[in-house]
Amino acid sequence: MKNTGSALMTAFLMMLGTFANAQLTMHKMISVGYTYQNQSFGDVGGKLLFLSNDNMVYRLGGSALMGSANGKFAIMPKVSGDIMLNFEKNVDFYHSYYFVMGAEATNKYIAPKVGFTLFGLLDLTGGYAFPIGNSGINGKELKGLNINFTLNVPTTFIHDMFK
Question: What does the longest C-alpha to C-alpha distance in the chain come to?
Answer without folding.
Answer: 52
